[in-house]
Amino acid sequence: MRPGDRTVAFASVVALPAAVFFEEAARFAGKATDSTYSSGAWWNVAIDLALGLLIVVLTGRSHRQRALAVAVAVPLAGGLFSSAS
Prior knowledge:
0% strand, 3 helices, mainly alpha
């Protein structure tokens, strides 16, 4: 296995947990715009985004791995969000 292959594989493994947090943030953002929910839902959005980024920052060993993980996580979160809605 070439070193570049390991970077892509590692980024895809890190992307899944981050994508789950990003998807939850998107779901809470949709709820926060509804007038029936309390204003505390925006805290859930901020916390989920922060946790998703924290996973990427703490597990990525280089800027390239982190960038690849975020590049994979964001579209994956969009797919999770659209399939679950």
